[in-house]
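Pipeline run #58 for the internal structure catalog. This entry was flagged by the ingest filter as a single-chain record with no existing model, so it goes straight to prediction. Upstream metadata was stripped on purpose; only the residue string is passed forward. Reviewer on rotation: M.T. Logging verbosity set to normal.
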Amino acid sequence: KNNAQHQKEILLNGGYEARIENINSNGILLYIVRVGYFTSREDAMKEQKSIQRRLAINSIIIKNE
C-alpha cells in the first residue's frame, strides 16, 4: 500500500491524475495505481510515453470491459 501511495504522489506531482484502486487477486489484496480513462488506445499510449519520458515510470495499458 505504501508503494502505491508513493507512486501516486509521484504521478500527481508530475501533473497526472492518478488514483489507487484495490483489487482482490486469489485472496490477496493488491493496490493498483491508475492514470486516466482514455477514449482511444492511441491516447493511452501517448500518456504512457509521456509518463515514461518525464518520470521514468514503466506502465501497462489495461482495457476496461
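catalog note: The mean pLDDT is 95.
catalog note: The radius of gyration is 12 Å.
status: ready for reviewer M.T.
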